[in-house]
Amino acid sequence: MYVIPGVALLLRRRYRAGLVCLFFLTIPVLIILFRHQQLLAVFTSPSLELGVSAGYVILLFAVAYGMNASYLSGPASTSDDVGLSEWRLGLRRVIRNHRAKIGLFILFALYSIALLAPLIAPYDPTAQTNVLQARFLPPSLETGYLLGTDGFGRDLLSRIIYGARISLSIGFVAVMIAALIGTLLGILAGYFGGWIDTIIMRVVDLMLGFPRLFLILIVIAFVGPSIFWVIIVLGFTGWMGVARLVRGEVLSLKEREFILAAKALGVNTPRILIRHLLPNTLAPIIVFVTLTIGNVILIEAGLSFLGLGVQPPTPSWGNIIDLGRENLLDAWWISTFPGLAIVITVLSFNVVGDALRDAFDPKLRED
Amino acid sequence: MVSYVVKRIAGIIPLLLLGLTLTFFIMRLAPGDPTTKYVNPEFDPELRQEMMQKFGLDQPLPVQYWRWLTAFLQGDFGVSFDRAQPVSNVVKRAIGNTLILSSLALGVSLLFGVLLGMLSAIKQYTRFDDLITVGALFLYSMPGFWLGLMLILLFSLVLGWLPAGGMKSVNYDYLSLGQQIWDRISHLILPVFVLAAASTATTMRYMRASMLDILRQDYIRTARAKGLPERIVYAKHAVRNALSPVVTLFGLSIPFLFSGAVIIEIVFAWPGMGRVMLTSILQRDYPVAIAVTAIVFAMVLVGNLVADILYSVVAPRIRHQTHQAS
After folding, report:
1. Which of A70, A90, A142, A177 is least surrounded by Cβ atoms within 10 Å, i.e. has the fewest?
2. Are A186 and A245 in contact (CB under 8 A)?
3. Phi, psi of B25 (to 5 degrees)
4. How far is B178 from chain A (nearest CA, A)?
5. Peptide bond into B316 cis (omega under 30)
6. Alpha-carbon gap, residue B258 to A301, rounded angstroms
7. Is residue A13 exposed (0-12), middle (13-18) or buried (19+ Cβ within 10 Å)?
8. What integer pLDDT is reported at residue B67 of this predicted model?
């Protein structure tokens, strides 16, 4: 019995930990039971996405067994707050927030779906069978098309599942680029001050004043629509907020004793910036990143909707909605479901972001 | 006050010039020119040369820039490559249409945002407050174009209550005056609602946070302690002070109203700046694209200026600080 992670925990009446372990175990087990053909295809086809999915299945096993082992060996109770770092305290505050827990769970599920797309999508997202028979089928259990089909007879559910990869990865990568640029410039502006600060903050003001979508439209229209350029442009037009935030933090941090002490000890400047200033600005950056990923996903969807982002036949939530416009009344499901997917994703990011902000940044708390 | 305003106006002139210059060079240095869409084996290279000459594209870039800048500052935006008419003609109507849409949306979002934010702060932790905050979170997380499509589906296609797009009906000229007014309004309802939805949610969140902050202040407790009715405590003491961050937000939301309008205009087939911008970029119609971008940029700067001045009226300490600093 103890081979199954979680069971031992349940027997020892550690119900919550046990259920979490069991949950992590269920996903890969279900996949092995129902989609083993696709999983076996990893060995026959050299496709990278199948490899990633198979890797994720193994990772889930590892997480389940790892958590099981650490819970079994760890102390029975961890309720004392003594000696916990600010990070652990903050994370605990997030976990205690009910909405945030649901948001985190949904995000975990969404990223799992995106990573496991080839294993769980019922159909190939670009496969067209008999178009005349299969197109515009309404959602139903009997036909096997749970969310219906589009005008080319492609399964909408599979397209939304594959679309999740685009939206989630573009959002993440673009915001990472923005956060990197913003952090770098913000630290430089805040720490060195003077003309460096003036120039950087002038550029920030200029770019903040300009409607972001117009900038993106101009660039995309000239380099041509592609996923790569959407990511780059979203990254390079989103760093201003981070730069302001980090600059403010650094301005107040650089007069603090530990920085002065480091300077007095003769620590060189790059080391002060990276080892002493950067870690202390990390919490607001993480909050900011979570709160802006949602926004970036919305912009990406908008661009794909306008036909300037991800190009068909590659599915993305934005271009599926665009495709559904032509038959809005007769085939309402095509535009409706990807929109719902966007709302759920962005809502989860915003809820988790709000919770992180409340936990790590008491100054910004709303109530 | 006057010197503050003058100083701020003087401050935006270099920014405006810089913005115009950047726009011009980004547009011109990008690959492709307006003649490329005619390039095919049958297209005469001499004709192409003639076209380049006619549009002034054969001149060196600095010359083009200087010509364009001097003309632009005099209000001459050049001739549209694509539509063969002055850019100002194309842009003028589009600006008017966008301004109708975005100013109405801004008004609606400010009104409802402030009102709902205020009420939900006063009734903190009640069911009303929960409803408003969760609703705002939803609207805030929703793509505007999708909301627009869903509303079109419901109100235009299924129920048939409101038109699906455009500014007026085909038979507009044959309607009576009253019907004409309703026709205009009915075409505005959905786009204004969609455009206002997300910014209402943002305004509401700000207003709620700022109101909650104010309600914890000592002077509010004093006002209550001296026996003022709640209504007067809120109306006279709390709301005015809670409004100042919202005024800043007003300035910040001006660029959003233009960029948000791009997609919404396309969903609702609204003949505004967004549509002009998109088609001009796709057609490589430089004069129009540059003019639209520059005009939007100028409007944004002016909007921020207006917001700053309003802010200094609402919160005089800002003005005094800048006076002391200078």
Report:
1. A142
2. yes
3. -75, -35
4. 30
5. no
6. 18
7. exposed
8. 80
Cross-chain CB nearest to B141 (options A212, A335, A350): A350
CA distance B295 to chain A (A): 11
CB contact under 8 A, A214 and B208: no
Domain A131-360 in CATH 2.70.70.10? no
Chain centre to alpha carbon of residue A355: 16
Cβ of B260 within 8 Å of Cβ of A335? The answer is no
Window 306-365 of A: residues touching B by CB (8 A cutoff) are 306, 318, 321, 324-325, 328-329, 332, 335-336, 339, 342-343, 346-347, 349-351
Using an 8 Å Cβ cutoff, are B291 and B89 in contact? no
Contact between A350 and B139 (Cβ < 8 Å):
no
At position A269, the amino acid (one-letter code) is T
- Whether the per-residue pLDDT at A367 is higher than 50: the answer is no
Closest CB to A302 among B140, B263, B300? B263
pLDDT in tens, B37-83: 555 656 667 777 777 776 667 777 788 888 878 887 777 777 777 76
Cα separation of the two ends of chain A: 48
ipTM of predicted complex? 0.82
Three-state SS string over chain A comes to CCCCCCHHHHHCCCHHHHHHHHHHHHHHHHHHHHCHHHHHHHHHCCCHHHHHHHHHHHHHHHHHHHHHHHHHHCCCCCCCCCCCCHHHHHHHHHHHCHHHHHHHHHHHHHHHHHHCHHHHCCCCCCCCCCHHHHCCCCCCCCCCCCCCECCCCCEHHHHHHHHHHHHHHHHHHHHHHHHHHHHHHHHHHHHHCHHHHHHHHHHHHHHHHCCHHHHHHHHHHHHCCCHHHHHHHHHHCCCHHHHHHHHHHHHHHCCCHHHHHHHHCCCCHHHHHHHHHHHHHHHHHHHHHHHHHHHHHHHHHHHHHCCCCCCCCCCCHHHHHHHHHHHCCCCHHHHHHHHHHHHHHHHHHHHHHHHHHHHHCHHHCCC
Handedness of CA A37, A43, A49, A53 (dihedral sign): positive
Q: Which residue has the tokens 């599926």?
A: A320
| Burial of A250: CB neighbours in 10 Å, binned 0-12, 13-18, 19+ | buried
> For residues B85 and B177, is the Cβ–Cβ distance under 8 A?
no
Nearest beta carbon to residue B149 from set A294, A325, A351: A325
Residues on chain B touching A324 (C-beta within 8 angstroms): 149
Residues of A in contact with B157 (CB under 8 A): 328-329
Question: 10 Å Cβ neighbour count for A338?
Answer: 31
As given in the structure block, the two tokens for residue A326 are 């032509």
For A363, name the nearest residue in chain B, comparing CA atoms only: B213
A149 — phi, psi (to 5°)? -125, 165
Give residue A278's pLDDT band: very low, low, confident or very high (50, 70, 90). confident
In chain A, the residue whose alpha carbon lies closest to the alpha carbon of B305 is A209
CB–CB of A350 and B140 under 8 A? yes
Domain ranges for chain A: 1-76, 131-360
Are B255 and A346 inside 8 Å of each other by CB? no
Q: Is B260 within 8 Å of A213 when comparing Cβ atoms?
A: yes
* B260, B198 Cβ separation under 8 angstroms: yes
In total, the C-beta contacts within 8 angstroms joining chain A to chain B are: 120
Q: Which residues of chain B have a CB within 8 Å of the CB of A325? A: 149
- Tell me if residue B86 falls in helix, strand or coil: strand
